Amino acid sequence: xxxxxxxxxxxxxxxxxxxxxxSALVIxxxxxxxxxxxxxxxxxxxxxxxxxxxxxIGRLRNWRIWFLLKPFLAPIIREHEMKGDFTGASYILATxxxxxxxxxxxxAVASLAFIMAxxxxxxxxxRKWGKHRYGSKSFExxxxxxxxxxxxxxxxxxxxxxxGIVGALVATVTEAVSSGVDDNAxxxxxxxLAMHLLVRLIYL
Length: 204
Hints:
mainly alpha; two-stranded antiparallel sheet; about 75% helix
């Protein structure tokens, strides 16, 4: 999410949008619980990602497919997406492919879950109860993101807790300072890289 555009959809639309974020947890959960290897996971994810990108291109070029989906998607699409950017769904699906390809399974699962759990918490808490603001974000929202990310770090399978905590902190800071770059991409990739390097430094 681009911070300057956080409040450009209604609160109801925000909740609906963040429910799609939470539903995306099926990606890291499925990757782990189904015991998929990288190749199999990518064989599933890449066609799904391409399909979503095609839908986005159709939306931007006003193909007929967009007019069929518009009643369902328009209320949760932000202004910058309507003006020419891809939606968060395309970003998170593409980032999932990169994270799965680049990182070990524990790191990929945690880095993706950080944004999928943390971003909805930050957006909803920040919009409803955020009082102490920096830019267009709030400390309350960032704290909600951090708490969600720490829970992910605590329960993430196969990931040393200290590595997960560092990843959660990096994810929170990345989400807080993201500007001009969709945090659906920046948070998993930056936090995943931090955890990847830390694992290699400490455990290898």
